[in-house]
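Appendix B. One record, verbatim.
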Amino acid sequence: MSMTRATPKRARISLDRSIERLRKQLSDLAAYLGKGIPTRDLEEFDQETERLIADLLGDTSELLDAYEYAEFGEAAGLVNLTDEAPESAGVESQRQRLLQRSRVLESCIAELEARRAAEPKPSQASRQVLIGPQVAEHMSADIRSLSQDASLREAGQLMEKWKLGSLLLTDNQAYVGFITDAILARAVVAKGLNADTAVKVCMRRPVVAIAGDRPIIEAVRMMKDEATRHLAVTQDGSIIGVISVSNILRYYSGVV
């Protein structure tokens, strides 16, 4: 099976959204300290956290190194917490290692909050242009994709596995289109295409995209105009996520 999840180049969504994601991760960590029931094993949580820190702060960030050291109880000195540094490696309890993970995540949040505070304040004119929630705040940042040469069967299996209504398609260099559950239904059921047919035969191209800093209502209008239920979300020319009708409905159901 040929697939990829990488974006053409690393991109960042809004600082507010990034801080929110880190706070959620910090909240989930509390379960391993007895403040709730973990929803996944600790190894999976650590891998997820490392990817998140790399995405938001860069894969050369000292805080990423600090988190990896925290898994072995050696992170305190890396994040200016020398009072909590262990006397010797290998003797930290599990609880101490969890607490060090927590300190690293708090440092990540503090770093992003400092960046946010240093950003220039938007002018009154720009605040008037962008009224309401932005697309990037309600998109799915976990990009799932598949080679355009993969089969319709593979696309359907991945959508079922990941519980998604669409996949981005690539030519191994860039995103070139979408395949959706509706297109699959039309292709296989209505048109009678063989399930081994390549998805590129019936994919939607080119990718319909919207900038992440645009208001949600603009995404609604674009979906209507383009007759699609899924939009790629971009920042600085790179795809950073996907927003679907279900994302928008979840937002509005929480508002009205």
